From TrEMBL:
<protein>
    <recommendedName>
        <fullName>Bifunctional NAD(P)H-hydrate repair enzyme</fullName>
        <ecNumber>4.2.1.136</ecNumber>
        <ecNumber>5.1.99.6</ecNumber>
    </recommendedName>
</protein>
<dbReference type="InterPro" id="IPR029056">
    <property type="entry name" value="Ribokinase-like"/>
</dbReference>
<dbReference type="GO" id="GO:0005524">
    <property type="term" value="F:ATP binding"/>
</dbReference>
<dbReference type="GO" id="GO:0052856">
    <property type="term" value="F:NAD(P)HX epimerase activity"/>
</dbReference>
<dbReference type="GO" id="GO:0046872">
    <property type="term" value="F:metal ion binding"/>
</dbReference>
<comment type="subunit">
    <text>Homotetramer.</text>
</comment>
<dbReference type="Pfam" id="PF01256">
    <property type="entry name" value="Carb_kinase"/>
</dbReference>
<dbReference type="InterPro" id="IPR004443">
    <property type="entry name" value="YjeF_N_dom"/>
</dbReference>
<keyword id="KW-0520">NAD</keyword>
<keyword id="KW-0521">NADP</keyword>
<feature type="binding site">
    <location>
        <position position="150"/>
    </location>
    <ligand>
        <name>(6S)-NADPHX</name>
    </ligand>
</feature>
<dbReference type="GO" id="GO:0110051">
    <property type="term" value="P:metabolite repair"/>
</dbReference>
<keyword id="KW-0547">Nucleotide-binding</keyword>
<keyword id="KW-0479">Metal-binding</keyword>
<feature type="binding site">
    <location>
        <position position="119"/>
    </location>
    <ligand>
        <name>K(+)</name>
    </ligand>
</feature>
<dbReference type="InterPro" id="IPR000631">
    <property type="entry name" value="CARKD"/>
</dbReference>
<feature type="binding site">
    <location>
        <begin position="123"/>
        <end position="129"/>
    </location>
    <ligand>
        <name>(6S)-NADPHX</name>
    </ligand>
</feature>
Amino acid sequence: METVRAAEAELMARLPEGTLMQRAAAGLAATCARLLTGRRGRVYGSRVTVLAGSGDNGGDALYAGAALARRGARVTAVLLVPEKAHPGGLAALRAARGRVTVEQEVGLADFSRADLVLDGIVGIGGRGGLRPEAQPYARAARRGAVVAVDLPSGVDADTGEVPGVALRADVTVCFGTYKPGLLIDPGASYAGAVQLVGIGLEPPAAEVTALQHADVAALLPVPGAESDKYRRGVVGVAAGSATYPGAALLAVAGALHGGAGAVRYVGTAAEEVVRRFPEVLVTEGGPAGAGRVQAWVVGPGGGEGVRQALAEALASDVPVLVDADGLTELGRLGPDALAGRTAPTLLTPHTGEAARLLAGAGGGTPPAADDLAASRLATARRLAADYRATVLLKGSTTVVADPGGAVRVNPTGTSWLATAGSGDVLAGLAGSLLAAGLAPLDAASAAAYLHGLAGREAAGEPGAPTTALAVAGALPAVWRAVRTP
Ligand SMILES: NC(=O)C1=CN([C@@H]2O[C@H](COP(=O)(O)OP(=O)(O)OC[C@H]3O[C@@H](n4cnc5c(N)ncnc54)[C@H](OP(=O)(O)O)[C@@H]3O)[C@@H](O)[C@H]2O)[C@@H](O)CC1
Ligand SMILES: Nc1ncnc2c1ncn2[C@@H]1O[C@H](COP(=O)(O)OP(=O)(O)O)[C@@H](O)[C@H]1O
Ligand SMILES: [K+]
């Protein structure tokens, strides 16, 4: 949040005092009024509780509460740290005939009864989780909507980590820029629907970004008039074993829809692959003896042959994507196995595989996968730095980290993707984009974006269990949707 603060400070120096807070509060009040109108038909007479902490986040909430009170809402502000409540906001609320209480019991009762709660306990200035005085609100029952001011209180703005408890919101109104904590789980799951209110803040280039349709459309490889299959790129897939022949089919299915001109398969499932996908080139032996490819995918359903396949692929001078059993093997070898590479490497672990990779990098026992899921940003960054490779960390929020420091979080994911084999499809898809010439960060984040949309498409609305093969089958429709202006 240092960059946001710097941008705010720079902008504030040019504006009359309080301008940004007034803009923020006006946007916040407008969203609250829309929500109340939607739920109750009108703002007038509705019950609103403002939870106001000790900083400017509380100030925003108090000013917005004042605006709602002027429209006839019955507003009560609960001051969590009475001596530090924002003086201007408090005065505005009082002038609008809002009630103020410092009794936490009264506050909790109001909170539970309210049609709408404004969570202004703490925003980007919050550190170390909710303090004791605020914790009961995170646990209390409520019947109304909770609108988080800038960020759900208790969520770390920079990382999405939740040390302790946090206030779950239905809507988060964030000011100026999306904070990473709103995009990365577990924080993202507390934010509800996120609305951005412009306050005239021009954010500097962010360290953590999320692609949108237009960004992905610009990245996707599209054949030109002069293209042929080789110029579009050939992706090599070394996947599948006697135990998991299906992983080969799924990785190939993803690869066929990723933009490469051809897919070359090596491995024990060649017969099944060709029966299902006659367009695939198959070669005996491992990656070293296969014809020229522009990128390798190694590891899905890997089995016995994975050690050799990984060694051969890593010895090549083309980008290599390592997934699944390939990652387990790489964890055994440690980062040194990538030291001599002349082309980029993309690692696509889930948190269990990430734990093995970290153990391989640092020695010792693997960290618990659950702990890594609670600190996705830090985990992806650490792996990227340790292995000097691009890392796509899978799971409830997919995070892609480049060794150079850039991070992208994927906004399209859906938990319907938590189905066996969908990771294999993602590996093939991302490998295909690598072969088509995308940089690893672009290939990984565009693949995650398409894969998330395909998961949604395959699950349908309002959602039903789907399969990895159906996710692969949805990819063409998703490409078209993304490329439609
Ligand atoms: N800057 C701007 O131009 C604009 C900023 N805007 C708004 O300001 C917000 C940032 O305001 P901020 O910097 O005052 O910090 P904020 O989030 O209110 O928290 C700091 C206070 O909370 C306390 N505290 C700390 N940790 C805590 C915890 N875990 N649990 C409980 N309390 C905790 C801490 O107390 P202390 O440590 O001092 O005791 C300190 O007093 C931002 O999110 C946005 O809403 C908008 O108006 C647009 C323009
Ligand atoms: N809760 C979730 N929400 C969103 N996506 C998820 C969730 N759980 C898993 N996924 C996604 O599903 C895919 C599962 O991949 P992976 O764990 O490799 O499974 P498999 O090995 O069975 O293919 C990944 O793309 C991952 O990001
Ligand atoms: K808040």
